[in-house]
Design brief:
Strand content: 25-35%
Radius of gyration: 31 Å
Number of helices: 1
Order of helices and strands: HEEEEEEEEEEEEEEEEE
Largest sheet: 10 strands, mixed
Helix content: 10-25%
Length: 322
């Protein structure tokens, strides 16, 4: 009987090894593509969040800057050290320049009291500062409100400590941690002759914008402090620098003619240029970037892995002049 050889069906070792190599290469390419797309998505998500935070912070700050000085008839007397040593008045805004960190700014304007929260008037003369005002209405006023009293040519700020609805009185007692505006000896005396019957009492918004980089150094935040008894609130997350520049009318002709980082006379301010640096929430491995110089604040000294964006906006301040 003749024996015939028959080739067995299957793969040789060489073929199997070649298949494994090809499969490994394909999977490596797929994984690399997935990793790249995943990283790109994460980066773009962080960048989008950074831009959104920056735009929101800019919108809130610019809105209050546009209102600076609204309804304020005269420089308002405030206690020394509420803003800083030697600062005893504010008309619309007060800049605080910082060459080694973010700037800050104080803003004052009249609370836009509608029909449900109208201003009120005093019903008896106030020849000198005291602990209460007799008024014709207490509607819309609450404990802790910051208010001004004005006769049109002078104005003083105080904080309401108690609203007496039945007696139609607004108390502004001194003392206590939240009573910086009523401290004994801290508030300048009223104008000569005091305030006469019919002088107006109105609620005001007194704000401070600043960058908080101490509560969480990895998450610098643009904050607004609605000065009085309320706690500061975040406005924009991951905003690491704010620089403010001011265009001034130095000769009083109504035309802004000079820019300054630190104006000596806030009454000359006609425009404010807002410069914000936002950064991503988390650093990115392999990304090398140095915080850029902004305004009169020098650039950073090393890379830290954060992506950044600079946003600039110039705002007209129509109510800043005396």
């Amino acid at each position: 009987m003749r024996m015939r050889s028959r080739r067995e069906a299957g793969f040789t070792l060489v073929e199997l090894m070649a298949s494994v190599v090809i499969f490994s290469i394909a999977m490596t390419a797929v994984f690399a593509t997935y990793s790249f797309q995943k990283k790109s998505f994460e980066v773009q998500s962080q960048v989008a969040a950074m831009q959104q935070n920056q735009r929101e912070g800019m919108e809130v700050l610019s809105r209050d800057l546009r209102l600076a000085g609204y309804g304020i008839p005269a420089p308002v007397t405030i206690p020394n050290n509420v803003i800083g040593a030697g600062v005893t008045t504010i008309r619309s805004l007060y800049p605080v320049d910082n060459t080694v960190g973010p700037d800050s700014i104080y803003i004052l304007y009249l609370y836009d009291m509608d029909a449900n929260q109208p201003p009120t008037e005093i019903t008896s003369p106030m020849p000198d500062s005291s602990a209460e005002f007799n008024v014709d209405s207490v509607t819309g006023f609450w404990d802790g409100d910051l208010c001004i009293i004005t006769n049109g040519s002078a104005a003083d700020m105080f904080q309401v400590t108690q609203v007496q609805g039945g007696a139609l009185k607004l108390q502004h007692n001194p003392g206590g941690s939240a009573r910086d505006y009523n401290e004994p000896g801290g508030h300048n005396t009223f104008p000569p002759g005091g305030y006469s019957t019919g002088s107006t009492l109105s609620k005001v918004r007194f704000l401070r914008y600043y960058i908080d980089s101490t509560t969480d150094p990895t998450r610098p935040t643009l904050m607004v402090d609605r000065l009085g008894s309320a706690a500061p609130q975040p406005v924009g997350d991951s905003i690491e620098d704010m620089q403010l520049q001011y265009r001034l009318d130095t000769d009083g002709d109504g035309v802004a003619d000079a820019w300054s980082d630190n104006p000596g006379n806030p009454a000359q301010i006609r425009q404010v240029r807002i410069l914000l640096i936002a950064r991503t929430k988390f650093p990115e491995k392999g990304w090398t970037e140095v915080r850029p110089a902004l305004g009169n604040h020098a650039a950073g000294t090393g890379t830290d892995g954060y992506r950044r964006r600079v946003l600039e906006l110039t705002v007209d301040v129509r109510n800043s002049g005396v």
